[in-house]
Design brief:
This protein is 70% helix and 0% strand. With 100 residues, it is mostly helical.
């Protein structure tokens, strides 16, 4: 869907602050959509062409903080632990091959 908004030139210059007003409007729409839980993280990231880490930074810049459940934190902790163990195993394997 394409949305067209008529804005007087003087106000458009004021709102854009030298940036692309279309992008500024899209970002404001996405920030509002995330803040009101009408957009999912995936939808927001897709609309803005960002990955999830970039989206998190974008939302923080716009004062939108996502509610995370304890399950979200537990899942992130478990993933971090698995990645750490994998890294340690790779490191140990590399040290073993160097000692031969």
């Amino acid at each position: 869907m394409q949305i067209t908004v008529e804005v007087p030139d003087e106000i458009a210059r004021q709102l854009s602050a030298g940036q692309d007003l279309s992008r500024t409007a899209l970002e404001a729409l996405v920030a509002e959509g995330c803040g009101s839980d009408r957009l999912s993280d995936d939808q927001a990231a897709d609309l803005l062409g960002l990955n999830h880490y970039e989206l998190d930074g974008f939302l923080k810049q716009h004062g939108v903080y996502l509610d995370h459940s304890i399950q979200d934190f537990q899942r992130e902790r478990a993933l971090g632990e698995r990645l750490w163990q994998k890294r340690e195993a790779e490191r140990a394997a590399g040290l073993d091959s160097q000692n031969r």
